[in-house]
From TrEMBL:
Pathway: Cofactor biosynthesis; (R)-pantothenate biosynthesis; (R)-pantoate from 3-methyl-2-oxobutanoate: step 1/2. Belongs to the PanB family. It comes from the Bacteria. The lineage of its organism: Bacteria, Bacillati, Bacillota, Bacilli, Bacillales. Its EC number is 2.1.2.11. The gene is panB. This is 3-methyl-2-oxobutanoate hydroxymethyltransferase. The keyword Transferase applies. Its cofactor is Mg(2+). It catalyses: (6R)-5,10-methylene-5,6,7,8-tetrahydrofolate + 3-methyl-2-oxobutanoate + H2O = 2-dehydropantoate + (6S)-5,6,7,8-tetrahydrofolate. GO terms for molecular function: 3-methyl-2-oxobutanoate hydroxymethyltransferase activity; magnesium ion binding; methyltransferase activity. 3-methyl-2-oxobutanoate binds at residues 43-44, 82, 112. It comes from Metabacillus lacus. GO terms for cellular component: cytoplasm.
């Protein structure tokens, strides 16, 4: 399994890191099979697989539940699991306890936390306790309430300067990587060049040290609205729709099941059963 050391080496050697989200056993299997470098069990699962309108309803037990399934599908891939809304803010103790559960029960290799400010101290506590931490700056969806929507962050000089300073603080606190979501590509490029740890971009341009996308977005599975930064590599929904329509039609026509899908009892057993009465 690739680990934090390998990701640092990849950055040094300018080999981009390919990361995708996965939320269950089959998606994790496909990701590992494709030799994806790193899997994110993102709290986006709240929106993508649970149907919530934001990530704030996602709980710690949701994250652990999905993380376990992903580990079963990807035993040899580095797994990062999101700490959910408000699970790393109340106190240092609670943050450590919650992260420990994600590692011990969810079987993740690292946790991811959104934001800087107070969160920087949590990154530091976790790292000093031996838990690998990925930081996440720019558009931080758990703060949608204060950001007022899913908008690009760091577009003006002041907010970009703050973003660059926050990125340095996350590295100093011990983060092993940094996700940059929805930031101008020039700022992602600057942050990637001033940090030693790898940056993983989503809507942050090609200069980041790696890229991450949501699994369902990239295969076109069950999502109706796509952010601008998504490239769809397939449209699986069309195939699913066709398959379900065909199944339904064939049931209505009694065209399914065919003999090959059924089990048949021997004639003599039927004879014994009914004794010629049928
Ligand atoms: N399916 C899915 N994909 C994601 O990438 C994703 C989620 N869900 N849920 C959690 C967060 C929320 N994310 C989002 C959601 C919407 C936009 C969006 O619509 N952005 C506008 C940009 C608006 C602007 O210009 O400021 C866009 O048009 O892309 C961006 C990120 C990223 N994450
Ligand atoms: C969009 C990525 C970075 C994420 O945090 C998630 O999938 O939850
Ligand atoms: Mg997330």
């Amino acid at each position: 399994m690739k680990t934090v050391k390998d990701f640092l080496k990849m950055k040094k050697e300018k080999e981009p890191i390919a990361m995708i989200t996965a939320y269950d056993y089959p998606s994790a299997k496909r990701a590992e099979e494709a030799e994806i470098d790193m899997i994110l069990v993102g709290d986006s699962l709240g929106m993508v697989v649970l149907g919530y309108e934001s990530t704030v309803k996602v709980t710690l037990s949701d994250m652990i539940h999905h993380s376990k399934a992903v580990r079963n599908g990807a035993p040899d891939t580095f797994i990062v699991t999101d700490m959910p809304f408000m699970s790393y803010h109340i106190s240092r103790e609670e943050t450590l306890r919650n992260a420990a559960k994600i590692i011990q029960e969810g079987l993740a290799d690292a946790v991811k936390l959104e934001g800087a400010g107070e969160v920087v101290e949590m990154i530091s506590s976790l790292t000093r306790s031996g838990i690998a931490v990925v930081a996440h700056l720019g558009l931080t969806p758990q703060s949608v309430g204060v950001l007022g929507g899913y908008k690009v962050q760091g577009k003006d000089a002041d907010s970009a300067r703050k973003l660059i300073e926050d990125a340095k603080k996350c590295e100093e606190a011990g983060a092993c990587a940094l996700v940059l979501e929805c930031v101008p590509r020039q700022i992602a490029e600057e942050i990637s060049s001033v940090l030693s740890i790898p940056t993983i971009g989503i809507g942050a341009g090609s200069a980041a040290d790696g890229q991450v996308l949501v699994y369902h977005d990239l295969i076109g599975y069950g999502v109706d609205r796509l952010p601008k930064f998504v490239k769809q590599y397939s449209h699986i929904d069309q195939q699913i729709h066709q398959a379900l329509k065909s199944y339904k039609e064939e049931v209505k026509l009694r065209a399914f099941p065919e003999l090959q899908h059924t089990f048949t009892m021997k004639e003599e057993e039927l004879e014994a059963l009914y004794g010629g009465k049928k």
